[in-house]
Amino acid sequence: MSETLANPFTLLFAGSGQGIGAEAARLFANEGAKVVVSDIDAAKAKSVADSINEAGGQAIAVPGDMLDDKYLESLVKKAAEFGNGKLHIIVNNAGYTWDGVIHKTTDKQWDTIVALHNTQPFKLVRAAAPYFRVKDGEPRNVVNISSTSGLHGNAGQANYALAKAGVTGLTKTIAKEWGPSFGVRANTVAFGHIMTRLTAAKEEGGYVTLPDGERVALGIPQAQKAAREDGSAAYKDIPLGRPGTATEAASAILSIVSPLMSYVSGQTLSVTGGRNM
How far is the C-alpha of 16 from the C-alpha of 252, rounded, in Å? Predict the structure, then answer.
């Protein structure tokens, strides 16, 4: 265990049952944080929490649907109880894409993605306000996860691009409201091409099941993916020449929360391998 974080910290990680979230949960636990694993998939959330505990860390799984307001209230309550009445870090990472060109995007597609990436993170932070608006001398952080789609737009992702752009406004407002009196730092981490289920081939069958049973296919269509990665032209728009790993993405989240960035707040850290600079 290193000294990146002061101990003990309680971390509520929304969307940490797999991919970047799971990797980050383990990294934070290795630094001594007490981790609350939140994910809609109960089995995956339990698996991540179990792996942390088996490695000597401290974690609990509190699965549920981020679109359920009652779940958010329960999640914050259980996180604070796990932290002996304290909560230090929130990472808003839960989400997925539901793509469609503008003229074919349905209201359901639009409303679901905007709610998941904008409205519900706001409600989670609002519910946690009593644990952040305190003056006990202990550092507190909110990290909202965004995307290059939110910074630059992306064809076929009007809903996701708008939602991820909105994340930066929420982050800056938290920093301006809770920084002066309570010392809360709030930052955004915007990912580029990271190897996750959202950037895998759509034909591989990744999907999210909505509460009404509808399945949303995830990933990039194989033909489009192959065109982007054809031969020597693979990842030509990324100066480092490759996609990032989930561990690299998770490390960026840990770094921005660490005391090494104690004077950084209200900023957006782009983790892109140099893309879009």
Answer: 15
Edge-to-edge strand ranges of the sheet holding 140-147: 58-61, 34-38, 10-14, 89-92, 140-147, 184-191, 268-271
What DSSP string describes 12-80? EEES-SSHHHHHHHHHHHHTT-EEEEE-S-HHHHHHHHHHHHHTT-EEEE----TT-HHHHHHHHHHHH
Q: Would you state the pLDDT for residue 213?
A: 76
DSSP summary character for residue 245: P
- pLDDT tens, 107-138? 999 999 999 999 999 999 999 999 999 999 99
Find the radius of gyration of the CA atoms of the chain: 18
| C-beta neighbour count of 43 within 10 angstroms | 10
Give catalytic residue positions: 160
Domain ranges of the chain: 10-195+244-271
Is residue 228 packed enough to be buried (19+ CB in 10 Å), middle (13-18) or exposed (0-12)? middle
Beta bridge partners, 220, equal 201
Q: Where are the beta strands (DSSP E) in 102-242?
A: 140-147, 184-191, 207-209, 215-217
At 230, is the secondary structure helix, strand, or coil?
coil
Q: To 10 degrees, the CA torsion angle through 197, 70, 84, 144?
A: 40
The hierarchical CATH code for the domain 10-195+244-271 is 3.40.50.720
Q: pLDDT tens, 197-222? A: 555 555 555 767 777 777 777 766 65
Q: What percent of the chain has pLDDT over 90?
A: 81
Report residue 207: phi and psi, to 5°: -155, 165
Dist. CA 75–CA 10, nearest whole Å: 13
185, 265 contact by CB (below 8 A) = yes
